Amino acid sequence: MSKILVVDDSPVDAQNLQNILAAAGHLVRIAVSGAEALAFAKAERPDLIMMDVNMPGLDGFSATRQLTQDTSTKGIPVVFVTGKDQKVDRVFAQMLGAKGYVTKPYTPDQILALV
Description:
Elements: E1 3-7, H1 11-23, E2 27-31, H2 34-44, E3 48-51, H3 60-69, E4 78-82, H4 87-95, E5 100-103, H5 108-114
Parallel strand pairs: 1-2, 1-3, 3-4, 4-5
Helix pairs in contact: 2-3
């Protein structure tokens, strides 16, 4: 069982990911902003972070940049789960060190393959 942090400001999207991951036996926590994700990652050290990009305040790209620059969180893999489907977004995610990128809508199989 992995501890997975889902970061999404949409309650519906966060709940959907939580349902998929929990059904597969993972412990899931939810953060609704990039800032909340940073705090949780430092305190709880999840095994994986599933990060949305478009969020108010600190977006997913900025939060991931901060995670990778912090020695206490830089080893936590980040997978983007987002509605952004432009090539430039995928390239930027790779530059930030993302371990995966899936666009909404997705299937449960796509999500579980990234775990």
